[in-house]
Design brief:
2 strands, about 75% helix, two-stranded antiparallel ribbon, about 0% strand, mainly alpha
């Protein structure tokens, strides 16, 4: 069933990770049934929020992007999220043995995809760009994603509990490196002309 684990990850994450582990989801099935749909939430919300709603500046003036400039940025954002989740999943698989876990390449991608669920869901707030609300709720989503990751590595990857925190910390560190790389790529793309164009 499409997105069948979303509610469980919020309501009872330990039991839901058990179900995810027993399901043995493949990379393709996990992507089509979870990542492709959830990654579209922040992309669609940000596109509508930036082009139709806009955000209010210090003088009360509303700023919006042109749809022509927002479309390629939205598509690249979507692609970056999908590639990032896949790459993080491969790193999780690669590191699992070091921390005493058992893993297949699909296990790493499944863990990365499901742990990122709160981050995908909070992207809906981009529909109405209010920076302080997005930051507050965004921090809570990051904290909950790390919590899901911590639980998931011990259950889904069978990492011993005493090593779960170290493994989850290593995964978060790799994720932060990916974010920095994404920011660098954004600067390069903006310099090449794939950047925001503001409505007058």
């Amino acid at each position: 069933m499409v997105l069948n684990h979303v509610w469980g990850l919020f309501a009872d994450p330990k039991r839901e990770w058990q179900r995810i582990r027993e399901e043995r989801c493949s990379v393709g099935r996990c992507y089509t049934g979870h990542a492709l749909l959830l990654a579209a939430i922040p992309v669609a919300a940000a596109f509508v929020g930036a082009t139709y709603v806009g955000w209010e500046g210090p003088g009360g003036e509303v700023t919006r992007l042109t749809a022509e400039s927002a479309v390629p940025m939205a598509l690249l954002f979507y692609l970056a999220m999908l590639v990032g989740v896949f790459a993080l999943g491969q790193m999780i698989h690669w590191m699992a043995g070091t921390y005493g876990g058992t893993s297949t390449p699909a296990d790493g991608v499944v863990l990365a995809t499901h742990a990122a669920t709160p981050l995908f869901m909070v992207g809906a707030l981009a529909l109405y760009p209010l920076v302080w609300v997005q930051m507050l709720v965004g921090y809570a989503a990051v904290a909950y994603s790390i919590y899901l990751l911590y639980i998931g590595v011990s259950i889904a990857m069978r990492v011993p509990r005493e090593r779960s925190l170290l493994f989850a910390t290593a995964v978060v560190t790799v994720g932060l490196v990916f974010v920095v790389a994404l920011l660098g790529a954004t600067v390069i793309l903006w310099d090449l002309g794939v950047g925001p164009v503001y409505m007058r």
